[in-house]
Structures are given as C-alpha cells and as structure tokens.
Amino acid sequence: MLVGSRFGDGLAALWLACCCWLIALGWSRLWIRLLLALAVSLICAFVPYFGPMLSISHLVNPKCSPNEGGVGDCIVYGGEVGGVAHKVVSLGWRIIEGAPIAIGIFVVYAIVAAIIELRSRRQALRPLG
C-alpha cells in the first residue's frame, strides 16, 4: 500500500527511473532493454494499486465490507481493521496519477535509449582519421 500511495509523490517514480538506468547498464541490446523497461513500468503502473485490493478480497464477510467511503466496521478474526481495509479499496483510484507517471518514465527512457543507440551506431561507422 505504501508504494501505491507514494508513487504519485515521486518516491517510487525515482525508484523506477533507477531501475531503467540499471537495465541500461545490464543489457546491451536495445530491444531487450526496452522490453525489460516496459515490463517494469507496467508492473509499477498496476501492481501497487490493485495488488493490495486483491489481497484483501478474501477477507470480505458479513462483518467486513471494505468500501471507498470508509463506511462501516470491518472485523476480521475478532479485530477491527476497517481503517486500513477502506484505504486499500480507495487506493485503486490513485492509479489515475501513478500509471501515467510510470508509462511516462518508460516513454522518456525509450526515447533517450533510442537516441543513445543511434549516436553510438553513427560513431561506430565513422572512419578514424
């Protein structure tokens, strides 16, 4: 839940940018780097928001019905977990700000990686002298 709530604040976006940088250092072929960066970006665009929601879906019972409005108690195994359960359900709406950031980081990375690849190919084809 923390990653999903912090992605829009920039902390997870910085982490994703570091992942893309490490992908660039670890793989030499452009298409592999782009594919890995796309996979990491898609994971960061969706999992932090819907993963927590899926993890609490099995806790729904007559005494616990988590909702976006935070209405009602949520008693699981004899304890009140309503505040957290309601926040997890409302976390799905943060995808509106987090997913575009993750996809935007991938687009910027793809453009920069393509430019660097083109420049390195041009320099490799230049005659020495």
Question: How would you sum up this structure, described in words?
Answer:
- By secondary structure, the chain is mainly alpha-helical.
- It has one domain (2-125).
- Helix content is 69%, strand content 3%.
- The protein contains five helices and two strands.
- Strands 1-2 form a two-stranded antiparallel sheet.
- Strand 1 (75-76) and strand 2 form a beta hairpin.
- 20% of the residues are buried.
- The mean pLDDT is 80.
Number of structurally distinct domains: 1
Counted beta strands? 2
- Report on the biggest sheet: 2 strands, antiparallel
**How do the strands line up in the largest sheet?**
1-2
| Computed CA radius of gyration, to the nearest angstrom | 21 Å
Helix content: 55-70%
Proportion of strand residues: under 5%
> Could you spell the SSE succession in H and E letters?
HHHEEHH
User: What is the straight-line distance between the termini?
Assistant: 58 Å
Number of discrete helical segments: 5
- Poorly predicted runs: none
Mean pLDDT: 80
Shape label: rod-shaped
**Could you say which structural class the secondary elements and strand pairing correspond to?**
mainly alpha
